[in-house]
Specification:
599 residues, alpha/beta, Rossmann fold, seven-stranded mixed β-sheet, five-stranded parallel β-sheet, 25 helices, 17 strands, 39% helix, binds thiamine diphosphate
Length: 599
């Protein structure tokens, strides 16, 4: 483990340092972060930009009495170091290890959980208003990036905040010009046009009612400390605009397209991700993106939209190839969705591609704008299901439950790359209303290339892999692999287990499912999503509504916030791998095994 910064023990001691000593500490923290995060992986670029800014905050304010609210929370590593968590860094990106974001479970210096962007101003304002009502005199300081500032709710909060006076709240804008990909939009252009030392009083923020302080050099401790001290005594809500450099001090970030916002374990000299990180393997998003690119070659009406998630959606080659038909408006999930509606009204065929968890932000836009108008729009989500070592709120395990009740929306989930290819291709060719195709996180599965040649009449049905008279397993998406293995084991033990790959989640292939369930006494459903409102419950309802009463076993996730972990770790833990699925079936119907032994 790299040496942790020696000068620093706790936030109180930090306040006794001279500015020179603080500067020295900044160097130590930066070296520590590079050493440590290069071994574990993590949000290195984002955090190298906030070293001085964090030290200045802890120097001027009194955390945790004063509340530092880190928007998104991925840039709080220095905050973690100075609040006594340097020892946890070696456990970053391991099961049960240090959170990638700030987390209330880790420290009383972490005021609120985050990981979805744009919440800090609303939470901070709520705290500050509550403090004022309760005559408390501590400060609240939301620290928000220029990317997160474009989020709808951040802009709503700005509107509310600018109208307030005498609130003990200071907005600290951490402006590095990047979201994950380079920033985009009028606000971005405006911020970037403000040069250091500009004395222009007519800033956007002044006219919105803020006391604008800046722009200040976010790596100059003295200036930062002065700006924060000045902000403490303001009648209007102060907004300190700090210019920072993402990846500051890591040469490799200078040539990286995202300034190494996040990296798997990397070589600190070259910035190259280590071989073993597996980051080079083909993901579902890459396959989908290649199909979209091919379709855009022949159909000029297809356009692609992703809100600041190029890194997750694999759309970069499509953006490079068709820049005029590709749109990344920034971190604007709601806008991205309704933007597609406008385009579809004019006859275009939009593909809107999300990291599953962030599409939740656009729930009402899906109902009110996309589905009510029933326009031809292809929605795609990747990281549906478990999503790795991000926060519990990053898992895409609610998609089906919350979208199931939305009229007009069709939903599909392929079992492997070939089925995905066919689904995207086929859906784009005949798109007449909203369709969502879901994909999991991680490298692609490759079961069955023959599906590319499968006749349409059969491809538009669920796939019956094995019929079965003892029980029938109905599986969704990438749960196909472990379900297949489990069914094979059951069959090997003489149990006549069937397997159905559902493919179409909404509407369900009802007639086919009813026929299949009619003659089987036991039905098992397997999904990597919450059971409440999940596929299993949809199939139970279908059977019950049609007078069928097989015994059911629904395998999926409890209604809980699932901890971070790799797909393998979480599948094992929640009984969604082959052992887990087989074990659950065995425990539920042990009589089947007894019959086999007796037979
Ligand atoms: C609602 C939401 N959309 C997308 C993301 C994915 N994401 C995480 S950090 C980030 C960029 C943040 O940019 P900024 O706020 O400027 O902070 P920086 O990393 O540049 O310091 C993005 C797009 C997210 N966490 N939340």
């Amino acid at each position: 483990m790299p040496d942790k910064p020696t000068t620093f023990v706790n936030p109180q001691e930090l306040k006794n340092l001279s500015l020179d000593e603080l500067q020295q500490l900044a160097g130590e923290v930066r070296r520590f972060l590079i050493d440590s995060v290069s071994k574990t992986g993590g949000h290195i670029g984002a955090n190298l930009g906030t070293v001085e800014l964090t030290l200045a905050l802890h120097y001027v304010f009194d955390s945790p009495r004063d509340k530092l609210i880190w928007d998104t929370g991925h840039q709080g590593y220095t905050h973690k170091v100075v609040s006594g968590r340097a020892d946890l860094f070696s456990s970053l990106n391991t099961y049960g290890g240090m959170n990638r974001f700030v987390s209330r479970s880790e420290s009383r210096h972490d005021i609120i959980e985050a990981s979805h962007a744009g919440t800090s101003l609303s939470v901070g304002m709520g705290l500050a208003l509550a403090n004022r009502l309760q005559k408390k005199d501590h400060y609240v300081i939301p620290i928000i990036g220029d990317g997160a500032l474009c989020e709808g709710m951040a802009l709503e909060a700005l509107n509310h905040l600018g109208a307030e006076r005498d609130l003990k709240l200071i907005v600290l804008l951490n402006d590095n010009g990047f979201a994950i990909s380079p920033g985009y939009g009028a606000l971005h252009d405006y911020l970037q046009s403000r040069q250091l030392n500009s004395r222009d009083p007519e800033t956007l923020f002044t006219s919105l009612g803020f006391h604008y302080i800046g722009p200040v050099d976010g790596h100059d401790l003295e200036t930062l400390v002065q700006a924060l001290q000045q902000a403490r005594d303001s009648h209007r809500v102060p907004l300190v605009h700090a210019k920072t450099v993402k990846g500051k001090g890591l040469e490799a970030a200078d040539s990286h397209p995202y300034r190494m916002h996040f990296s798997f374990p990397f070589d600190p000299q070259t910035g190259q991700a280590m071989e073993s990180s597996g980051s080079s393997s083909v993901g579902y998003q890459d396959v989908a993106s290649a199909v979209i690119e091919r379709a855009m070659e022949v159909d000029e009406r297809i356009v692609a939209i992703t809100p600041s998630t190029l890194y997750a959606t694999g759309l970069q080659p499509v953006f490079d190839r068709f820049p005029e038909r590709c749109f990344d408006p920034g971190m604007e999930e709601q806008h991205a969705m309704t933007l597609a509606v406008g385009m579809a009204l004019e006859g275009l065929k939009p593909v809107v591609f999300y990291q599953s968890t962030f599409m939740q932000r656009a729930f009402d836009q899906i109902i009110h704008d996309v589905c009510f108008t029933n326009l031809p729009i292809l929605l795609m989500t990747v990281r549906t299901g478990f999503s790795g070592y991000d926060n519990p709120t990053h898992h895409g395990i609610y998609d089906f439950s919350y979208l199931r009740s939305v009229p007009n929306l069709k939903m599909q989930y392929p079992k492997d790359r070939f089925e995905l290819e066919r689904m995207v291709d086929r859906t784009l060719a005949r798109l007449s209303g909203p369709v969502l195709i879901q994909m999991p996180y991680g490298p692609v599965d490759e079961f069955d290339p023959a599906v590319l040649e499968e006749p349409d009449s059969s491809f538009e049905q669920a796939e019956v892999v094995y019929p079965g008279s003892d029980l029938l397993v109905i599986t969704v998406g990438h749960k196909f692999g472990p379900s297949l293995e489990s069914v094979r084991r059951l069959r090997h033990w003489g149990i006549d287990a069937g397997l159905v790959n559902l493919r179409y989640l909404k509407p369900l292939p009802e007639i086919q499912l009813l026929e299949l369930m009619q003659d089987v006494p036991r039905v098992v459903t397997v999904e990597e999503g919450v059971l409440e409102g999940g596929i299993g419950s949809a199939i139970v309802a279908l059977a019950a509504d049609n007078g069928l009463a097989p015994e059911f076993l629904r395998i999926g996730l409890p209604c809980t916030f699932v901890e971070p972990g790799s797909n393998a770790e979480l599948s094992r833990l929640y009984g969604l791998d082959a052992n887990g699925i087989t074990g659950k079936i065995q425990r539920r119907w042990s009589s089947l095994w007894k019959q086999q032994v007796a037979g």
